[in-house]
Write a structure and sequence with these properties.
Blueprint: H1 2-9, E1 15-17, E2 21-27, E3 33-39, E4 42-47, E5 52-56, E6 62-67, E7 73-79, E8 84-89, E9 94-98, E10 104-109, E11 121-127, E12 132-137, E13 143-147, E14 153-158, E15 167-171, E16 176-181, E17 186-190, E18 196-201, E19 207-213, E20 216-221, E21 226-231
Parallel strand pairs: 1-18
Antiparallel strand pairs: 2-21, 3-4, 4-5, 5-6, 7-8, 8-9, 9-10, 11-12, 12-13, 13-14, 15-16, 16-17, 17-18, 19-20, 20-21
Amino acid sequence: MLFFFVFVSCIPKVQSQSDLQLIKTVQLAISEPSGITVFDEFLYIVSDENGTIYKTTLYGKVLKKIKTNCTDLEGVTYNPIDESLVVVDEAKRKIIAFDLKGNQFAKNNIKGKQNYKNSGLEGVCFDTSKNKMYAINEKMPKQLLELNLKGEILDAHKLDFSKDVSGICYDEINDNLWVISDESKAIYTINKKGKLFKKYKTGIEKMEGIVIYKQKIYVVSDDLNKLYIFKKP
């Protein structure tokens, strides 16, 4: 019993909150939404079922479909330097850049260990303060990867606060990262080295993408085909 007590007492306490204010829930006309980003008052949502990028309003109404040749899209971010949409192909372990018309102009392999086809890269975001990207590896191992604009890994950080990680975004105001876990049904704030700040329980099934815009948190659920809009705390 003494050994058990010592072990538990060494686990760092994390501030957990369950009071994220839900503003709106939207049923999407998008099959299996798996990543989300924002640019110029529009959302861009990717589907891992049909390899399409959907341009929508801030309330999820589809305005345009951008077809790609990708088969397993799991994340998307906007790169303001070259005005591109950068997507993650999990199965092929690549990040691929498209212009806003859907023309592909860059593709990079991401090095790293991936034991299973469906446990690899799950999200990507652009850090506007440093002009670099962050990607996450879902599990085995759960990792936060710092990337340059060529997709080369600058550093890797172990993540140990959730069962898996399934989405990521950059918070310009606080200069930190937000990460979601579909298995843990929670949203987390972390620093750029993967240190956990706060945990927010949501109870939402299959959260796969997250982005922050104008003090709102936008989350998409893969299986439920829904967009959840929360007030940023």
